[in-house]
Amino acid sequence: MAHPIVLPRQGQSVESCIITQWSKKVGDPVKVGDILFSYETDKASFEEPAKEDGTLLAIFFEADEDVPVLTTVGVIGNPGEDFSDLKPDGAAAAAPAPAAEEKPAAQAPAAPAAAPAAVPAAALATGVSPRARATAARLGIDPALASGTGPQGRVIERDIFAARDQAPASQAVATEAAPAAAAAVSAPGEMAYEEVKLSKVRKVIAKAMHESLSQMAQLTHHMAFDASQMMALRAQFKAAPEDMALSGITLNDMILFAVSRVLKRHPDFNAHYLGETMRRFGHVHLGVAVDTPRGLLVPTLFDADTKSLAQISREMKELGKAAQTGSINPDILSAGSFTISNLGALGTEFFTPIINPPQVGILGVGATVDRVRVVDGQVTAYPAMGLSLTYDHRAVDGAPASRFLKDLAAALENIGILLAD
Description:
The chain is of the alpha+beta class. The protein has helices at about 95-105, 115-120, 120-125, 130-140, 155-165, 170-185, 200-215, 230-240, 250-260, 310-325, 400-415, 415-420, and strands at about 5, 15-20, 30, 35-40, 45-50, 55-60, 65-70, 70-75, 220-225, 270-275, 280, 285-290, 290, 295, 300, 340, 360-375, 380-390. The protein has three domains: about 5-95, CATH 2.40.50.100; about 95-185, no CATH class; about 200-420, 2-Layer Sandwich (Chloramphenicol Acetyltransferase).
């Protein structure tokens, strides 16, 4: 019996995923647990194992295709088994690969050398992936000229590029593109460059950041505080006995702890601005920006105001690891009530973080630098850490924003007292 391979839904907010790579080819034997393909959401990547033994009979969507979740992307069964009833609507086009292979037999007369070019594009289009079809239109290439190398002979993007490179210069399409290409290459003073395709994560970040700045009235306040007590406490944690499990607590963990407590006293910042209403949250759900190989991800530390410093430290390490490896649940990436972005490790003192809508604010944390001040007539040095609070001026005014930042700075300067509270 043929079994469908279904693209899973990873999180309730995910509507589609991009298949990044197939680990098996049509005709390969498959055992339960074998990795069939990898795929990614706009935030994380996953691998799909086989749930049945058998043979991979069909692949309906190849690498780089954006596929709706819960769609059948392939079939496992016995060789020769009928699986026509399992083909998804959008992939029925993948089957007509044999038609493209029958052409050589039909080309018995040697004279009609132009026969391949005469193949109607509409007939072949059923065996062309959406990405390949778009690339063909952009390059002015007839998909009928491409030889399919995708699953079941389907024409994919690299086939369009190959057709362009192999096309005779006498073809109308090629002759139109060739002069422009030649001019571009031979133009004096032309600078070399490389075009890099944007990942899905990068596109999502770009869209979200543009919408954030274009739809909000954002303003940033900056303030520095004395980090002496935090630095001293960090040194004590590092020197603590191993069985106390405190050595891994970082300065960033202390900041998360302090923010989770101070936000409770400033409910308008622990909120979402919804146009007509403000949604204030009963607990603090901290979004923490994490730099990953795939781009910026913001996992959420739920109910941070109810957790100890040690708990916050442990959970953040787990969230950071999951974000780095791409195995994080997408639902954890879009539920924060307030966000923190720390660029201190990169030497940035102050910056202007961009709000993650519909949140009201985001805190930027900068590097620790030595500054001087006068105490009892004496010039003394102290470690100063920068804070940058960006807030939505539609929801909160400048004075409340400054009060929140001032309270947070005071809490961090007296972190020992805050921990004892």
